[in-house]
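Consider one such protein record:
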Amino acid sequence: MKILSIVVPCYNSEAYMKHCIESLLPGGELVEIIIVNDGSVDSTGEIANEYANLYPSIVRVIHQENGGHGEAVNAGIRNAKGLYFKVVDSDDWVDQNAYEKILATLLSFQEKDAQLDMLISNYVYEKEGASHKKVMKYDNALVEDQVFSWEDIGHFRKGQYILMHSVIYRLQLLHDCGLELPKHTFYVDNLYVYIPLPFAEKLYYLNVDFYRYYIGREGQSVNESIMIKRIDQQIKVNKLMMQQVDLKKVSIFKRQRYMFNYLEIITTVSSILLIRSNTLENKIKKQELWRYIKENDPSLYRRLRHGFMGMTVNLPGKTGQMVSLAAYKISQKVVGFN
């Protein structure tokens, strides 16, 4: 059995997918690389097939009609055969030294027949044109190099969250929680991380800079102007996070607090983008979002609305919009848009 399944969702990725795949191949026979060609109209499919032919025991290819990033991840989960599961986007890559340590750690758990639900590592913002590479670490909040539970976590800073880039889940856990991401929807990586959290009990943090998150490509989904154009999809994900997890039922106070803070920052991002679009239509959508929260979960609404972030993004008038820039700076750190 493979120790790690890595899905690489690809849509018209011919210009950069080779760099991603080449960074994953050194995992050798311990990994399976599942390239999902999500209805590409360029040479993505041909490139994927070439790798599958060159490395038949490591690389598998799934060709499917375009369903969006979420459906590509779904296809990976449905077809994966490894013990653990990782998503690596086709314009990103992984660090080789960190990769070796990740695989050695997962292998040690398999050899001890010990169960691990969630492995967390660092990621690096590989921002186009930036000389300084920002690293998202968790050593202030998580116990290093040993299994721990949610009771053992420390304080996460605002803007410091476990994102898709930093998490490896046990594959069976993803099946057990019934994770299925919506089709034709951007920003589903938040659902991918958030929905399994109530099922993850045994955690492990490896303080290595594993995932290299490329940011700055034209047309990238986290570009602010693109996010504003796709604001309906951001709102959809925001609502699904509330619909699919009832925080009142989440056991362990520290886990519930972390998940509330995560939901809070996503709601802040939605609100900030609606404010910054500066249109009447999106002003109404912002009011509708907060009304939706109030009507569907009054207690959650009170916590969100009367917290610092909720008050900041709901201040009235031009002064309120100026103050909301503080929340904007924090939300920038989370999604990396510029």
Remarks:
- The chain has two domains: 4-215, 224-335.
- Residues 4-215 form a domain with the Spore Coat Polysaccharide Biosynthesis Protein SpsA; Chain A fold (CATH 3.90.550.10).
- The mean pLDDT is 92.
